Amino acid sequence: MTASIIYRDYREADFDALFPMSQKLWKDIPADELKKLLQHTVAQTKYRVFMALNPSMAPVGFAIFSLRTDYVEGAVQSPTGYLEGIFVEDEYRRAGIARTFLGMGEQWCRENGCVQMGSDTWISDQSSRLFHRKVGFREEEEVVHFLKDIS
User: Fold this and answer.
1) pLDDT tens column, 1-14
2) Which of 1, 19, 50, 102 could disulfide-link to 95, CB 3.0 to 4.6 Å?
């Protein structure tokens, strides 16, 4: 099935497909906030968004990569490539689409001086953790964030 998938860079016309797929990936982010975040992301050159389309040219997945210059856990240099998000519609999973996206993202990161790629997920998201390990990531650390109101 992956041979019939078309991969290309994000285009402005893709937003109407990118947004609902993003809502499936980032379910806890309010829609208006996610929309602004995506609009900001696709407008910046430090991000690269790839789209996967089926033979009918309908989008079936996306991947967002970035070049991070801030601290990335375990990274040995900056910038560090970063997998910000990756999503494939259920009926197209297990067809190699995510691995193809990763290859595309790794190439772009290498072209921009990166020697490593980071990513993250929630501690409780076992399927995402398994996916990351299957595609070659290693876990660096587990962190629990705390917040205290002081006003």
Assistant:
1) 556 999 999 999 99
2) 1
8 CB-near residues (< 8 Å, 6+ apart): 50, 51, 53
Torsion of CA 102, 11, 128, 21, to 10 degrees: -150
pTM: 0.90
| Tokens 């009926």, residue located | 91
What CATH number has the domain bearing residue 39? Answer: 3.40.630.30
Please tell me whether residue 19 adopts helix, strand or coil conformation: helix
Write the burial class of residue 54 (CB in 10 Å: 0-12 exposed, 13-18 middle, 19+ buried): middle
| Token pair belonging to 94 | 């297990």
Domain count of the fold of the chain: 1
Does some domain include residue 148? Answer: no
Tokens read off for 11: 């285009």
